[in-house]
Specification:
By secondary structure, the chain is an alpha/beta fold. It folds into two domains: 51 residues, Nicotinate-nucleotide-dimethylbenzimidazole phosphoribosyltransferase (CobT), small domain (5,6-Dimethylbenzimidazole Phosphoribosyltransferase, Chain: A, domain 1), CATH 1.10.1610; 272 residues, Nicotinate-nucleotide-dimethylbenzimidazole phosphoribosyltransferase (CobT), large domain (Rossmann fold, 3-Layer(aba) Sandwich), CATH 3.40.50.10210. 49% of the residues lie in helices and 9% in strands. The structure holds alpha-ribazole-5'-phosphate and nicotinic acid. It holds the Pfam family DBI_PRT. Pathway: Nucleoside biosynthesis; alpha-ribazole biosynthesis; alpha-ribazole from 5,6-dimethylbenzimidazole: step 1/2. This is Nicotinate-nucleotide--dimethylbenzimidazole phosphoribosyltransferase.
Length: 342
């Protein structure tokens, strides 16, 4: 299916509406742009309030055996249980912004079957080591993308009009860095960061792992990037974004991992970024560069480096404010306020 076209006519009308509101033109800065962005995506001059849904996809990474994370793989499954019980950062932020939250196991190493509060769609017990071989077979990658799509479809059917994908997967900054390097043509030195908190030696090791993984796949097509150096959760996130854009539903991108998934989705469907807003700039080294490649401009820089969809959830109230201002402010005419030109 194709990505839905953006309604540029409504965008122009929304701009004109902003200029009639009782404030100096442009005085609300990016809040004005955001309101017009939603008007054109919803096809409504006065956009509806946002009903956000967050889907956190979880999967493990075989590349952890190279020692590229400060934490062991077992933390992925433990954190999924924490999500299900409501105790993680994303649970708090979802509650703060009134978002519904789904947790999906697409490839966690530990056995989570029977654990309540989780959607069980496991396609493998983590990926293979992307340094040595393809992270996953083609059919597994396709199934993970499809799982992401079906999560987006279900959320939209339940009434969500804003979609956020979050990630949980120890080792996934290495997979994400590999994707970002490959798809932006940038060096590992510029993209690889400290992830959960490795030291300088740990980062050098990661740089080397990513460099060698890129060498391994140098002759392969960009279309294979997810299965070669991605992750099950990253593939699901890409599918989630593709479905949102094909259903004409706005997306807020989180941090480094979400941006890697967005770049991978763009290989499959170049127009997907028309439906994306960038929330924050992650502390992870190459994030700025990934956002620039996506043509997205982050709203805030809070030096966060968490993932889980946390940065995206954090900006939802800003987006809500942008829409409320646009929809509820009086115009110069309705309030009897004299405009600039008398
Ligand atoms: C307790 C804990 C909670 C997290 N929530 C998200 N991440 C984040 O950190 C991991 C990526 O970093 P690296 O590539 O260095 O392993 C991912 O699981 C990501 O979701 C977490 C990491 C930890 C340790
Ligand atoms: O920006 C992110 O998404 C991120 C950064 C470090 C670790 N986990 C996630």
């Amino acid at each position: 299916m194709a990505v839905v076209a953006v309604n540029t006519e409504i965008e122009k009308e929304a701009r004109a509406h902003q200029d009639n509101l009782t404030k100096p033109r442009g005085a609300l800065g990016r809040l004005e742009d955001i309101a017009c962005w939603f008007a054109s995506r919803q096809g409504k001059l006065l956009p509806d309030p946002l009903l956000p849904h967050i889907a956190v996809f979880a999967g493990d990474h075989g590349v952890c055996e190279e020692g590229i994370s400060a934490y062991p793989s077992v933390v992925t499954g433990e954190m999924v249980k924490n999500f299900a019980r409501g105790g993680a950062a994303i649970n708090v932020l979802a509650r703060q912004c009134g978002a519904t939250l789904a947790i999906i196991d697409v490839g966690v190493m530990s056995d989570l079957s029977g654990f309540e509060g989780i959607t069980h769609k496991k396609f493998g017990s983590g990926t293979a080591n992307l340094l040595r071989e393809a992270a996953m077979p083609q059919n597994q990658c396709a199934a993970a993308i499809e799982a992401g799509r079906s999560e987006a479809k279900a959320a939209i059917a339940a009434g969500a009009n804003l979609l956020i994908a979050g990630d949980m997967g120890i080792g996934n900054t290495t997979a994400s860095a590999s994707i970002i390097c490959r798809l932006t043509g940038t060096t590992p030195e510029a993209v690889v960061g400290f992830g959960t908190g490795v030291d300088e030696n740990g980062r050098s090791l990661k740089v080397d792992v990513v460099r060698r993984a890129l060498e391994r796949i140098s002759g392969k097509a960009d279309e294979l990037v997810l299965q070669e150096v991605g992750g099950l959760e990253i593939a699901a996130m890409a599918g989630f974004y593709l479905q949102a854009a094909e259903s004409g539903i706005p997306i807020v991108i989180d941090g480094f991992i979400a941006s890697a998934a967005a770049l991978a989705a763009r290989v499959i469907e170049p127009q997907v970024t028309n439906w994306m807003l960038a929330s924050h700039i992650s502390h992870e080294n190459g994030h700025a560069l990934a956002l620039e490649a996506l043509g997205l401009s982050p709203l805030i820089n809070f030096e966060m480096r968490l993932g889980e969809g946390s940065g995206a959830a954090l900006v939802v109230p800003l987006l809500q404010s942008a829409i409320a201002l646009h929809s509820q402010m009086a115009t110069f005419a309705s309030a009897g306020v004299t405009d600039k030109d008398g």
